[in-house]
Amino acid sequence: VPATFHRASDAVWRQSHDGVLVLAAPDHDVVSLTGAAAALWQLLDVPRSVDEAARALAEAYTGAPEQIAADLDPLLADLVARGVVDRVTRP
Amino acid sequence: MTSPEIAAQLRAIAAYGLPGSLPAWPAAPLDPVQWEELVLHVRLQRLSPLLARAVSDGTLPATDPQIKEALDVGTQALARVLVLEATLVQAAGLLGDAGVAFRVLKGPAVAHLDYPDPAWRDFGDIDLLVRPDHLELAIAMSGRHGYARRFPEPRAGFDRRFTKSVSVVNPDGLEFDLHRTLAPGPLGLRVQVDMLWDAPPARLRLGGRTLDAMGPDERLLHACYHAVLGNSPPRLVPLRDIGQLLLGDAIDPDRVRRLAAAWRGQAVVAHAISTAWSSLRLTDQVALSTWAAEYVPRGRERKELARAISPRYTFTAQAVDAVRAIRGPRDRLAYLTALAFPDRRYLRGRHPSFTARLRHAVTELAGARTSTKESHD
Fold it and tell me: What is the pTM of this model?
């Protein structure tokens, strides 16, 4: 069963002029998401697998879902490491 | 000192997006000197997000470098606000777990509950209303997490009974104001704090938590008190909050008037609303803006307002005026005793002897009286 990703519940965020600013905790760095990364943030208001997110982004951005999914893997790993996205493995 | 042209631009930026405002936008981008002055005051007035909006949609004409700078300062403000909100989320967990009842005040509350987009509202600290009998616990909890009081309590029990708020700050400079009431001096002491707690809270979602705030009528009244009593002349952000709240559809004007009357704060509320309408050049009239324009304070109320809006209305003058607002001889005596004979820790770095404090108080009061007289004339 694929893992799902969603916004970290304790993250705070604001829409900025060119995307989204997100912060996981006061002693973390503010993360700036623009373009497709900002669109991904909007999608992650509900838990989604990489494939689900990639299919949704493929409708707005040119590119095959498989390629977008491959690009999403490192981005999501980075966002998880920064504490702004949670990764949940379904039992 | 702000030049008249820049002051007009600041008011226009503060009114950005409000229905019925008649802002005086320039026809062409400001010259570099004016722009620099504008950005400086925009930062000081915490209007950066509104400036960013106004230049990015072309409402305020700007050159490409000016647009870039406005967007940069707007983003910096958003980042700072996020740090404060993340701190608020942490504090809410700590205070909630300790059983401290609190309501989120001012910036985060109005940003999420009243503005079209929370990103429009900048703020510089976190303010919480805490139940008076929970204030001591809230301060202790803050201390356990690295926050220290800015000023010691004059005497044990003073905060719970008389203070407006207690500021706590951590080594990184993050500050919380833990409020017992909504305003300083006699007006704050007349706010019936129980009414704030008896009213149903508004709720906002932040960082995965549901936080309580005051309802819209209380938020409006707080913005009015803050606008008039916080700074002289009033800062633009609380005036914007007043416009934002009153031009929305959540306010019950009759209830606002009843609360203001119960707290004997009608003159302050009317003055705040009238100032918001004139400063932001708002043309849409609502029930409370009409009431405020027609409200004529009388006698003692008029004198109290004149003192309150004087830039020379000092802490000492407020403290002396506050005596009259305290009910009962025992409480008055406790209040006066705390100020006349405070604990040693409170005196550290202040006027050390009773005589020195008295001399300082008399000097300040003389200044305040002169100023009040001037404002009457």
Answer: 0.90
